[in-house]
UniProtKB/TrEMBL annotation:
Coiled coil spans: 73-100
Source organism, top-level taxon: Bacteria
This protein's record includes keyword Cytoplasm: yes
Keywords, in A-Z order: Coiled coil, Cytoplasm, Translation regulation
Pfam families reported in the protein's UniProt record: Ribosom_S30AE_C, Ribosomal_S30AE
PANTHER family, alphabetized: 30S RIBOSOMAL PROTEIN
Entry similarity comment: Belongs to the HPF/YfiA ribosome-associated protein family. Long HPF subfamily.
Protein name: Ribosome hibernation promoting factor
Organism: Jannaschia ovalis
Keyword Cytoplasm: yes
SUPFAM superfamilies for this protein: Ribosome binding protein Y (YfiA homologue)
Amino acid sequence: MRYQITGKQIDIGEALQTHVKTELGGVIEKYAGRPTDAQVTFSKSAHEFVCESTVHLSTGLTATAKAKATEIYAAFDAASEKMEKQLRRYKRRLKNHHQERSQPVELSGASSYILAAESEGDEPDTLAPMIVAEMETKIPSLSVGEAVMQMELAGAPVLVFKNEKGGGVNVVYRRDDGNVGWIDPAAST
C-alpha cells in the first residue's frame, strides 16, 4: 500500500510518519482487504492541528476522515478512530448483503465546475454563470446500495453515480429529515 503523508505549512517528522503508517496500516489491514493507497494531510488552524485522511479501497470506494486537536498526534488518533468506525461499518454492510464485488468499480470521466457566487442586488450582465474552476472528475458505476455506502463513507451530502442496473446517471443525497433520497431519471420516464 502507498502512503502519502504531507503537511501544509508545517514540518512532518519521521516519527509521526512512522506512527501514521503503523496505526493506519493496522486499522486498514483489520477491516479492508486490499487498499490501494492512503493520503494523510496535516495542517494547522489557529491553535489546533487538523488531520485529514483518505483511503482508496480496491473496490473503488473511498473512506475519508477529518479530526482536530491541540496536539498533532491526538488529531491523527481521532481521525484514525473515525476511519476505523467507517471501515467497520463498510465491512459489516458487505457481510450483511452477502455480496462480494469481484470487479473494481468502473469509473467514467466527466467535468466538474465551481461556479462563482452571485453578488447580492446586482443584475448579472449575462445569464451564463461565471465559472471559477473546471476540473476532471470520475463518476463511479455502482449499485444504489453501494452509492449510499460511498456517500456515507465520504461524508458527502450528495453522490452522482452511474447505475449498474439501468446504466443511467443517478443521484443519492441526504435529505433534511435524515433519510436518503434517490433520483433515478430512467425510472421516471
